[in-house]
Amino acid sequence: MLNTCIFCEIISGRVSSDKVFDDDMLYAFRDVNPQSPVHIVIVPKKHISTLGEVCESDEVVLGHIQVIASKIAKEFLSLKNGFRVVSNCGYDGGQTVYHVHYHLLGGRVFKWPPG
Ligand code: AMP
After folding, report:
1. Residues lining ligand 1, Cβ inside 6 A
2. Predicted model pTM
3. Is the Cα torsion angle 66, 67, 73, 74 positive or negative in sign?
4. Peptide bond into 34 cis (omega under 30)
5. Is residue 32 exposed (0-12), middle (13-18) or buried (19+ Cβ within 10 Å)?
């Protein structure tokens, strides 16, 4: 069986998604199983499996994701009271889709530490 990546399929348009933002480096869409009133997934267009696999050449796109997460939260979603950005890495980190991504969560108050 061919090993396809669901996020690569979404980025290519072969699988539909509720797009929030798109540029040459990244793609952002609403999570299909939201954990808060606002739950956006932000992914680099380059396939990287986990944060544990990144290299120095990924610095630009990973930094760009932080800036765009802030822009989406403030300008597009009006999350004026704050928000949370999380990236789960590997089995212990709770990662289920092995294409690096950041969850942008908002619309409620989050607890710390996470479960
Ligand atoms: P993680 O568990 O940190 O790897 O996050 C993967 C996230 O991707 C989960 O929150 C899923 O709900 C979400 N997800 C998986 N497939 C889709 C999809 N087709 N469209 C939108 N979100 C998805």
Report:
1. 6, 15, 17, 29, 31-33, 41, 88, 94-97
2. 0.96
3. positive
4. no
5. exposed
What domains are there in the chain, each with its CATH number? 6-106 (3.30.428.10)
Options 39, 47, 99, 101, the catalytic residue: 101
CA 16, CA 46: separation in Å to the nearest integer?
18
Strands (DSSP E) contained in the chain are: 19-22, 26-30, 38-44, 84-86, 102-106
Tokens of 71: 């822009």
25 and 61 in contact (C-beta within 8 Å)? yes
How far is residue 105's CA from residue 36's CA, in Å, rounded to a whole number? 6
Q: Which residues contact 23 (CB under 8 A, 6 or more apart)?
A: 68
pLDDT digits (tens, 9 = 90+) for 41-84: 999 999 999 999 999 999 999 999 999 999 999 999 999 999 99
